[in-house]
Amino acid sequence: MKVLLVDDSNSIAMVVGQMLKEVGHEVLRAKHGLDAVDILKQHADVDCILLDWNMPEMDGLEFLQHNKEHNVASCPIIMMTTENKPEKIVLALQNGAREYIMKPFTQDILVSKINSVTEGAA
Amino acid sequence: MIEKHVYDFFAKFVFEKTGIFYPEKDYYRLDSRINKLITQYECKDANDVYTKFTTSRDADMEQFLINICTNNETYFFRDDKPFKALVDDMIPSLQAEFPGKSLNLWSCASSTGQEAVSVIISILEKFGNSVPFSFDASDISTDALTKAKGGIYTNLDVQRGLPITLLVKYFESVNNGDWKAKPEVSSKVRFFEFNLFDKLFPTNKYHIIFCRNVLIYQNSENKAQILEKLAQALVPGGFLVLGAGESLIGTGVNLNQVTLSGFMVFQRPGLKSNVA
Question: Tell me, what's the ipTM?
């Protein structure tokens, strides 16, 4: 499975990338929403996006809103963020996120959330 | 170095209280438990705690040992299929069999409560408030029950098995990062301490009993004893839900095996219209 990780933190990218590679996923990295838009133009076969909320250039919510208008990603999007207030979660879901991972999390949680949104996908 | 008679004593005590069996080859699994007892009761070593336990223990000390010997591993919607079978098959079947009656449910090894909460959410999602039911949830571990009764789950707890849409629907954010089941869920369950080896056992009471991942820790004699009592606790036509991989094999207990929504459950005979 090809996973696009959108997060400006190099340390998060390293840890999450390692978690995903350990279970056999291929990982692409974008440092913010605009970067993700560019990468998705070249990689239409991404199976799942892990999206941080607070990032420079284009943040996670802006990416979701951009995607609603321009359909840059057809795969499921999982928010992966320290934002853990119910109103923030609801806002992300209303704007197209399919699941939501609150930092900190474990590898089991990460993998099961990805599986839950990609099950049944071709 | 823990002496064999100390291992023998604690293994026997834990077995008699909980049915959890430590054969001699697994005595090393008692090490961490005995060490916790030593720390908790400020003893010098294993011999010291053995002496204290055998000569002057109180109910709290016994319960402390029981709490640290029980496995409280659980998570929301564990194994998934039982919850689908519950709302798609068991409840409709019971409603047809017992029209207008409130259904009695029991999670008899509820640990910290995630199973009970998952059952209640499943029912609310499928039926709203149209299915009257009461829900008993019990465990032998008072530590687990304290958490279950508090109803507060950590960030990590709620991310294990609980879809995010159900989290925001049925939980409220508390204590900056923790989550508490809303009253529409928490008010529907009653948690209490209960040992499956108790002599006083309910009979002909429950329409559905969840007893998952308990029997795997029991020897065949205890397994048969627990299953026999659970079967009697069911009303005729009631369902027993065991863990994936647990079965009645070798116990001789009189329950019918039925497969509902691809999941195997066990139904007490006695109704003309049993699913089996």
Answer: 0.90
